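Before the break, one more example. Copy the sequence into your notebook; we will annotate it together after we see the structure.
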Amino acid sequence: MLKYFAIFFFLNLITSANANYKEKIIDTLKNTNNINFNFEQNINGKIETGNCIIEYPKKIFCEYDKSNNKILVSNGKSLVIKTLSSYYKYPIQRTPLELILDKKFLINKIAILKERIIDESFINYQILEKDNEINIFFDNQTYNLVGWQTKDIYQNLNITFISSVKTNEVIDKDLFKLPPQN
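Here is what the structure looks like once it is written out:
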């Protein structure tokens, strides 16, 4: 009898810890209006780095470190990727970023999904929505977003790691204005 009680207690403790992760991630998201972070992005083996600011819902501004002046900007409706020699504009709903940048969507999905613990450091949720498969990762200590994995509109595997996360900073709203096409 004591053996069964110990097993029940242990299983209940594991379930409670996992529910606690979910609650803490949801609370962290609810209390986050914006995020400033450094990133490393790997698209089919091509690695780029830079800095991004996300403002919920659906706004992002990223400056890449390379010398071609690449930026990525979403005003919540459209997404622009601009370099010295190119300019691409997409409706945001055609990209997985529409879902990643929508914290209400993330909160609702996380509330019903089962998490995976990876290397005892990261909490992962797999979201299948609108022909997108998104793996989103959170730190198991801070409960902050630490990255995602998607396929872009060209079916390229895109893995984004984020670091040096700062939340709820004062930000310039003009960052999210779409740049003009040259």
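Residues 68 and 84 are 6 Å apart (CA to CA). The chain is about 25% helix and 45% strand. Try to locate both features in your own notes.
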